[in-house]
């Protein structure tokens, strides 16, 4: 089924199927009852990417059918936020009659927020010059009459920011609003409403934890900052420079005083903890002063590498957020030799697809 053809009346049916498949996939483990966190059935995605098709004087968004690989026109995209749907229509109508703005344009990316801000990235097969910038500024000025919008141009080895390259998301979590600076072209959770539920779940499973929290793959602080309330201190690592910079800003925006973000990969952190390698980025930081009894990991689809799994297995409590059940399954085969699974959750970040976002809380066997 194409994303443009989703039937909201089938949402519960597809979710039940996903739940059954996940329970069967993890049946080898003594998992507790699966906690299921639903999505809204339409307009749940805060991000969307489209190729652009030029056909004579016409210009429109397209996607490609996953089975036939054939392109199809997209004028309305039900999975995306209402804001994205509104902007994509108005933007394409302004680009279509503008030869300079549409010339060699091949892709448009959208990043929206619950706070009604949006960034649009225009990708080109040409270098962007002053004439292009002048025309896009006119288009942006027109759209700003209706939206809180920022347009960015991208070409090979070129990025043109007309105003700013970020939005400020205001995410509700347990009755409190957290501000997150989200950088264009950096990772953000696609389903904001389900993301709030993920954070609330992580807060709940760690409410009785003590000591400090270590988080690997912290991104812009999506989990680190809300979870700081449950711990004495938070030490978090992230390899992406833009994400680390955004996380530092988010610490200030949310008045978090007990969190520290390090620009390191999980592999580098393991090396530092073992004393195998020293890093200038750790200058002035005494890792031995932290009493990290809990670790949170939210790795990419590849899951945790063997060295990180070994390190993680030494912690009393493990919170594992996974976007890939297959690699989660592989990592749990090792982690369950030392830990028990106390909580198991499905977060339906990606409705109407086979993708499943999972949360697992494990505790060290006594």
Key attributes of the depicted protein:
seven-stranded mixed beta sheet, single chain, alpha/beta, 366 residues
What features would you describe in this structure?
The chain has an 8-stranded mixed β-sheet, sandwiched between helices. It has a 7-stranded mixed β-sheet with strand order 4-3-2-5-6-7-8, with helices on one face. It is globular and about 70 Å long. The chain has 10 helices and 17 strands. With 366 residues, it is an alpha/beta fold. The model has no long low-confidence stretch (mean pLDDT 95).
Question: Helices, strands, pairings?
Answer:
Blueprint: H1 11-25, E1 35-37, E2 47-55, E3 58-64, E4 71-74, H2 82-95, H3 99-102, E5 105-112, E6 117-124, H4 130-144, E7 148-155, E8 158-161, E9 166-173, E10 176-183, H5 192-205, E11 212-216, H6 224-227, E12 234-238, H7 241-253, E13 259-263, H8 266-274, E14 292-297, H9 306-312, E15 317-322, H10 325-335, E16 339-347, E17 357-364
Parallel strand pairs: 1-16, 6-7, 11-12, 11-14, 12-13, 14-15
Antiparallel strand pairs: 2-3, 2-5, 3-4, 5-6, 7-8, 9-10, 15-17, 16-17
Terminal Cα span: 48 Å
The proportion of strand residues reads 25-35%
Spatial order of the strands in the main sheet? 1-16-17-15-14-11-12-13
Q: Describe the sheet with the most strands.
A: 8 strands, mixed
**Which of globular, elongated, flat, extended, rod-shaped describes the shape?**
globular
Report the structural category.
Answer: alpha/beta
């Amino acid at each position: 089924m194409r994303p443009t053809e989703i039937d909201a009346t089938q949402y519960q049916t597809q979710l039940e199927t996903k739940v059954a498949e996940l329970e069967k996939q993890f049946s080898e483990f003594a998992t507790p009852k699966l906690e299921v966190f639903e999505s809204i059935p339409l307009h749940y995605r805060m991000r969307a990417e489209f190729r652009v098709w030029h056909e004579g004087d016409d210009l429109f968004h397209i996607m490609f059918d996953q089975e036939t690989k054939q392109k199809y026109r997209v004028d309305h995209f039900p999975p995306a936020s209402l804001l994205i749907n509104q902007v994509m229509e108005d933007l394409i109508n302004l680009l279509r009659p503008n030869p300079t703005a549409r010339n060699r344009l091949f892709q448009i990316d959208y990043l929206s927020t619950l706070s009604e801000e949006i960034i649009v990235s225009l990708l080109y097969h040409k270098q962007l010059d002053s004439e292009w910038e002048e025309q896009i500024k006119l288009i942006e000025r027109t759209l700003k009459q209706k939206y809180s919008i920022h347009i960015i141009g991208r070409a090979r080895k070129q990025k043109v920011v007309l105003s700013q390259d970020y939005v400020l998301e205001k995410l509700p979590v347990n009755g409190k609003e957290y501000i997150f600076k989200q950088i264009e072209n950096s990772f953000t959770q696609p389903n904001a409403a389900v993301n709030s539920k993920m954070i609330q779940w992580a807060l709940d499973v760690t409410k009785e934890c003590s000591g400090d929290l270590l988080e690997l793959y912290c991104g812009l602080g999506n989990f680190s900052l809300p979870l700081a309330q449950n711990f004495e201190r938070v030490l978090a690592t992230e390899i992406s420079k833009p994400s680390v910079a955004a996380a530092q800003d988010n610490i200030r925006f949310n008045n978090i005083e007990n969190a520290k973000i390090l620009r390191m990969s999980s592999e580098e952190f393991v090396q530092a903890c073992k004393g195998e390698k020293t890093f200038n980025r750790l200058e002035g930081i005494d890792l031995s002063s932290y009493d990290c009894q809990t670790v949170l990991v939210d790795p990419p689809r590849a899951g945790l590498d063997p060295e990180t799994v070994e390190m993680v297995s030494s912690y009393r409590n493990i919170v594992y957020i996974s976007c890939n059940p297959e690699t989660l399954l592989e990592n749990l085969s090792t982690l369950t030799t030392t830990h028990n699974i106390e909580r198991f959750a499905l977060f339906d970040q990606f409705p109407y697809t086979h993708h499943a976002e999972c949360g697992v809380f494990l505790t060290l066997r006594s």
